[in-house]
Amino acid sequence: MKKLFLVVALLVVVAILGAACATQQPAPSPAPAPTPKPTPTPAGTRPADQKFSLGISDNSDENKNGAPILTLKFGDGTPGASTVVAKKDTPTIDGKDGDAGWGQASEVNLGFPVLKGGGPTKATVKAAYDDNNIYFLVKWQDPTGTETIHKKMWTYNAADKTWKQTSNEDRVYFLFNINATDFDTGCAVYCHVGNAQWDVSQSKMGMNKSGETLDVWHWKAARTNPTGYAEDKHWVDLTAADRVTYEGETVLRTRLPDEGSGFASDNKEADLPKSMHKNDPGANVDFLFEADAITFDPNASWKDGATIPGYIVKKGTGSRADVIAKATYSNGTWVVEFQRSLVTNNPDDVQFK
């Protein structure tokens, strides 16, 4: 009897425990942690004001006019004849004016006749910047109303069966100070033969004091514009000059390209073109790209007035190709746009920071 009682009691306990377990709810899973919101990227610091100068060449090495020293301000300021204010925005670099990303126009007086002068006397300059790049737009009325893009173009004369080179190119120079102590004098002090020890055959442009350097962006209508760039260069003094061969003479060159290669090589061998276009005779192209160049054939069926470009152009590389530049020419007016990284960390480049 006792055994029966114990068995019944045990079954009752088991039933009570089973009922309790059946009614017990599982503990809820912990709520997932909320996804953290992205931390906004801190706005880039506004670069410091930068002094620079500007020169424009029309048609010839001898027709240059330059600006007195200009001040570039970032974000705030009133644009004027000597102040360019960069807007915080990203314009499209396509050689066309009118993009809303540009800052207000500065009407810059090109009051320094460099060498013989003869270039434009005024230009419009705009600027913009974003967290990565600096942008410039330069616009001017060409004083001769010509789109000069055929520097040293070869032309064939059927009467005497000779080839002759003529013409030049339009150009823009930006000069930014790196460590020159006489920069406030203006660009003419570097573009003229400013140092008495300079020989004109050695160099026309360069620094007056040992160890000083300018950063120079050089846009050329014939030699760099076809590739969509300006050549990034730097100017040094005679003690740091390169010894090069120029037109058959050994000279000192103080206007030096940055590291890299490009953009144009002289298309000349003796008194004839070195190369011609792959579709010559008769192609008569404005620009001869390296990929299209083949060895010149003087015995081809050349017609009177046939032309071959005086330079072979190709895209640049390295620091020499730091500056993107695109241009258009319409109704006697050039528009040239520039883009470069704010900071390159190259010692021969100005840093916008």
Model description:
Helices cover 7% and strands 37% of the residues. The N terminus is likely disordered. The radius of gyration is 33 Å and the shape is globular. The chain contains two helices and 24 strands. A ten-stranded mixed β-barrel has the order 1-3-4-7-8-24-23-13-12-11. A three-stranded antiparallel sheet has the order 10-9-21, with no helix packed on it. The chain has one domain. By secondary structure, it is mainly beta.
Task: Output the keywords.
353 residues; mainly beta; 3-stranded antiparallel sheet; 2 helices; globular
Shape: globular
Question: What's the helical proportion of residues?
Answer: under 10%
End-to-end distance, in Å?
A: 100 Å
- How many β-strand stretches? 24
Sheet with the most strands: spatial strand order: 1-3-4-7-8-24-23-13-12-11
The Cα radius of gyration reads 33 Å
Order of helices and strands: HEEEEEEEEEEEHEEEEEEEEEEEEE
Report the uncertain regions.
Answer: 1-42
H/I helix tally = 2
Taken together, the total number of domains comes to 1
- The fraction of residues assigned to DSSP E strands is 35-45%
Q: Which class do the helix and strand fractions yield?
A: mainly beta
Average pLDDT metric: 83
Largest sheet: 10 strands, mixed, barrel
